[in-house]
């Protein structure tokens, strides 16, 4: 058995190594070079690991199905360094957004090698020097935004050859000279705040109007166009007013993805639309000292609003992709209408062209995982009655998402860290709907499996397809966390010649009837034995290998309340005994065959000597 366990560990490590080397080293090296050149602090981009050169799992980095880096978005993080020229080696990069930082120095001419780039946003930094003429090589570039820097020199003539350019934003720099006539054909442009010649010789304005053109028309044609446009505007305003009045009672149904001015708020039914400025002040400019947690969806910050209300602000990552607004709106609506005592209530949201934020109530008692494994000196242990209450409350919340929401909502990352505790230590399921919320905006990137190792159902891991039964599996692992106080995966158990995964560990101890070794030692024997046994049985039923064999969450609720567990458990035991016997027969055959091979090799070696 020890040999098999070592083989399992070896296989896990081999798979991890293979995953780490799917990408060429140059991609991870280029991004880590950027990380160093930006003077990133230890608290910024913590998961950018130089020893893991596959950056597809790094925060704010997105890859295509072929494991090529296609998006890097590091907006408003607070960097102070310079741009690394090594970034120019990312030939498949489509989106690069570094706006809102304090980046200095020049734009590397090597950025002209990013031939797949469609969006480049470097606005609101302290960049100097000239716009590289090599930008003329970016034939796929659609959006170029360099506003509010200290760029000097003339606008490169090479930009005129970018036939796909839709938006050119160069406002508030120190640019000078003549603007190429061709650049005024770009749909939207802004050259204001420079020393450029926009209208002395050429009949153009320095910024395009709302129709995408800054050219001055001839007087007669201008009058005609003005009348037509005015009529169209009146019709549009009339139609807009009609539909607004008609739909007002429906609440949040209108496009709302421009930021609110100043510190204003706007109510949309039960939701509040916050301004970026208000949330910026509430979190002390998203200070790292206010970070409550970080996951695959972004960071969560503690904030205090102007009325002293404590909130948790989730800053979602990578939301500058075209087409994301409508999907975001639909999913926020979906989350907001899912109201249940065991689901985290969404207070409001904030949207800007490059940011998406969700605002929730702050949970003073943090998460179940914190209370199980991050106990500070003097803090009470999560007692057994509370754990039992958490188990039932979480089940009720998931049942509501699966069986009472239309369309149903699948969580996809059920674990103790995503179950929060309110002031009465009532379970509140958080982050529900966020997997869908993030994935619906992806246009050309295959949806990645979302979840945490040890909590992910086997069929989801192998096929990438999730269902409510993947949540049931995650819930079963969470029950084992509640009973044992341990993590779903714990490498320290290997030192004790034990199982790596909590599920296998508990299964073995349950077969050996070693209840005392399963229950969290922090409980100090203060628990109900019958209730512990019941919870372990429900957990093992929820974590069966086949999703069809797992119960629905409504059945789980009933079993936790004492209805129907005995029958399901008897069925499971019969299946489990048969499966274990088959496994043992196969293992014996494998061992016999292995011994035979070893003996043959030994004879061969002896004969050759």
Structural class: alpha/beta
Number of domains: 4
Global Rg: 29 Å
Q: Cα distance, first to last residue?
A: 33 Å
User: Could you name the ranges where pLDDT drops below 50 across 5 or more consecutive residues?
Assistant: 2-6, 12-24, 210-219, 221-225, 241-258, 437-447, 596-609
The description of the largest β-sheet is: 7 strands, mixed
CATH level 1 class label of the largest domain: Mainly Alpha
- Mind telling me which CATH architecture of the largest domain this is? Orthogonal Bundle
CATH fold call of the largest domain: Transferase(Phosphotransferase), domain 1
Shape: elongated
Q: How do the strands line up in the largest sheet?
A: 1-2-3-4-6-8-10
CATH homolog superfamily of the largest domain: Transferase(Phosphotransferase) domain 1
Note the total helix count: 15
**Tally of strands:** 20
Percentage of residues in DSSP E strands: 5-15%
Estimate the helix proportion, in percent: 25-40%
Task: Please describe the structure with a list of short key phrases separated by commas or semicolons.
disordered C terminus, 36% helix, seven-stranded mixed sheet, disordered N terminus, 4 domains, alpha/beta, 15 helices, Leucine-rich repeat, LRR (right-handed beta-alpha superhelix), 609 residues, Phosphorylase Kinase, domain 1, 20 strands, Transferase(Phosphotransferase), domain 1
What does this structure look like?
By secondary structure, this protein is of the alpha/beta class. The chain folds into four domains: 21-197, Alpha-Beta Horseshoe (Leucine-rich repeat, LRR (right-handed beta-alpha superhelix)), CATH 3.80.10; 247-362, Phosphorylase Kinase, domain 1 (2-Layer Sandwich); 365-563, Orthogonal Bundle (Transferase(Phosphotransferase), domain 1), CATH 1.10.510; 568-609. The protein is 36% helix and 14% strand. The chain has 15 helices and 20 strands. It has helices at 2-20, 25-37, 219-247, 276-282, 324-337, 368-373, 384-403, 434-439, 458-463, 468-484, 502-511, 515-518, 529-542, 553-560, 565-608; strands at 61-63, 69-73, 95-97, 119-121, 128-130, 143-145, 150-153, 167-169, 174-178, 188-190, 195-197, 265-268, 271-274, 291-295, 298-304, 310-316, 348-352, 355-361, 419-421, 427-429. Strands 1-2-3-4-6-8-10 form a seven-stranded mixed beta sheet, with no helix packed on it. Helix 7 (384-403) runs antiparallel to helix 10 (468-484), helix 7 (384-403) runs antiparallel to helix 14 and helix 10 runs antiparallel to helix 13. The radius of gyration is 29 Å and the shape is elongated.
């Amino acid at each position: 058995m020890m040999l098999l366990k070592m083989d399992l560990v070896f296989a896990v490590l081999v798979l991890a190594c293979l995953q780490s080397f799917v990408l060429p080293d140059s991609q991870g090296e280029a991004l880590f070079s950027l990380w160093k050149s930006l003077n990133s602090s230890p608290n910024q981009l913590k998961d950018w690991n130089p020893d893991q050169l596959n950056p597809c799992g790094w925060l704010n980095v997105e890859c295509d199905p072929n494991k090529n880096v296609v998006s890097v978005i590091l907006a408003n993080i607070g960097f102070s360094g310079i741009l690394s020229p090594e970034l120019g080696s990312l030939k498949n990069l489509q989106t690069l957004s570094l706006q809102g930082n304090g980046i200095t120095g020049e734009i590397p001419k090597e950025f002209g090698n990013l031939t797949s780039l469609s969006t480049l946003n470097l606005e609101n930094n302290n960049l100097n020097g000239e716009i590289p003429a090599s930008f003329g090589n970016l034939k796929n570039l659609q959006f170029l935004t360099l506003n509010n820097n200290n760029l000097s020199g003339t606008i490169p003539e090479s930009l005129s050859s970018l036939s796909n350019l839709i938006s050119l934003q160069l406002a508030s720099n120190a640019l000078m000279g003549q603007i190429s006539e061709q650049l005024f054909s770009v749909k939207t442009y802004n050259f204001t705040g420079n020393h450029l010649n926009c209208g002395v010789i050429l009949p153009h304005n320095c910024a395009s109007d709302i129709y995408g053109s800054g050219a001055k028309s001839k007087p007669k044609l201008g009058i005609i166009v003005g009348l037509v446009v005015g009529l169209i505007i009146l019709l549009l305003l009339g139609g807009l007013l009609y539909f607004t009045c008609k739909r007002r009672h429906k609440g949040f149904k209108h496009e709302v993805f421009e930021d609110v001015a100043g510190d204003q708020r706007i109510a949309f039914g039960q939701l509040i639309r916050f301004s970026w400025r208000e949330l910026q002040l509430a979190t002390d400019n998203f200070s790292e000292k206010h970070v409550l947690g970080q996951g695959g969806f972004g960071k969560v910050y503690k904030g205090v609003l102007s009325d002293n209300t404590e909130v948790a602000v989730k800053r979602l990552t990578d939301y500058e992709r075209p087409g994301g607004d409508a999907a975001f709106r639909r999913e926020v609506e979906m989350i907001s209408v899912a109201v249940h005592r065991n689901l985290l209530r969404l207070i409001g949201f904030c949207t800007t062209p490059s940011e998406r934020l969700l605002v929730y109530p702050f949970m003073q008692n943090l998460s179940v995982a914190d209370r199980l494994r991050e106990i500070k000196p003097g803090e009470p242990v999560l007692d057994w009655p509370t754990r039992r209450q958490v188990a039932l409350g979480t089940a009720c919340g998931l049942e509501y998402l699966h069986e009472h929401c239309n369309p149903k909502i699948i969580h996809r990352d059920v674990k103790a860290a995503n179950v929060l505790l309110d002031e009465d230590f009532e379970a509140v399921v958080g982050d529900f709907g966020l997997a869908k919320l993030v994935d619906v905006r992806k246009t050309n990137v295959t949806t990645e499996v979302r979840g945490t190792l040890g909590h992910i159902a086997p069929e989801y891991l192998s096929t990438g397809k999730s269902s409510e039964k993947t949540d049931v599996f995650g819930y079963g692992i969470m029950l084992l966390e509640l009973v044992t106080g341990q993590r779903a995966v714990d490498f320290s158990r290997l030192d004790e010649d034990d199982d790596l995964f909590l599920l296998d560990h508990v299964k073995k101890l349950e077969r050996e009837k070693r209840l005392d070794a399963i229950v969290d030692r922090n409980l100090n024997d203060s628990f109900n034995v019958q209730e512990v046994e019941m919870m372990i049985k429900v957990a093992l039923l929820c974590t069966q290998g086949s999703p069809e064999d797992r119960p629905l969450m409504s059945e789980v609720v009933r079993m936790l309340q004492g209805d129907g567990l005995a029958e399901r458990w008897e069925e499971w035991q019969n299946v489990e005994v048969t499966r274990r016997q088959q496994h043992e027969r196969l293992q014996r055959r494998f061992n016999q065959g292995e011994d035979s091979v070893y003996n043959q090799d030994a004879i061969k070696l002896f004969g050759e000597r």
